[in-house]
Amino acid sequence: MESSQMEAVARGIVEQAIDDELQDKRLELTYGTFKRFEEEGYLKSSESAMFGKIYAEAFNYFVNYKMYSKDPISLHEMEEFERIIDRRVLEIWSKIKHLSGR
Questions:
Q1: Contact 99, 28 (CB under 8 A)
Q2: Sign, CA torsion 75/19/54/58
Q3: 2 pLDDT exceeds 50?
Q4: ∠ CA 42-40-46 to the nearest 5 degrees?
Q5: Entry pTM
Q6: pLDDT tens for residues 38-68?
Q7: CA angle 40, 20, 66 (to 5 degrees)
């Protein structure tokens, strides 16, 4: 059964994953690691790497939920996942830039 939108539980899981990743302590730890990799020449941008990590974590939480529920991910759910990211992109980027500007 393909629904036209993401289940409320799945939406909540994606939002919670983003919230978890945006916690100050987690951001600081991640930033320290990625900044070191950038300084060593392994990354071009620690900020972009951090954004990618947050995106990947949110997606992984979503995929794990869908695997557990045994429902395939629909195109509509993927579109809604992208809308969640779009809605929170400024918040995510602002927190990353604030941390890197210290």
A1: yes
A2: negative
A3: no
A4: 60
A5: 0.87
A6: 999 999 999 999 999 999 999 999 999 999 9
A7: 105
Q: How far apart are CA 53 and CA 59, in angstroms?
A: 10
What is the residue extent of each domain of the chain?
A: 8-100
Q: Please, is 96 exposed, middle or buried when counting C-beta atoms within 10 Å of its C-beta (0-12, 13-18, 19+)?
A: buried
* CA–CA gap between residue 30 and residue 53 (Å, rounded): 9
Q: What is the DSSP string of the chain?
A: ---SS--HHHHHHHHHHHHHHTSHHHHHHHHHHHHHHHHTTS-S-HHHHHHHHHHHHHHHHHHHHHHHHTPPPPHHHHHHHHHHHHHHHHHHHHHHHHHHT-
User: What is the percent of the chain with per-residue pLDDT over 90, rounded to a whole number?
Assistant: 78
Look up tokens 């929170």; give the residue.
88
Shortest CA distance to 95 belongs to which of 51, 56, 44?
51
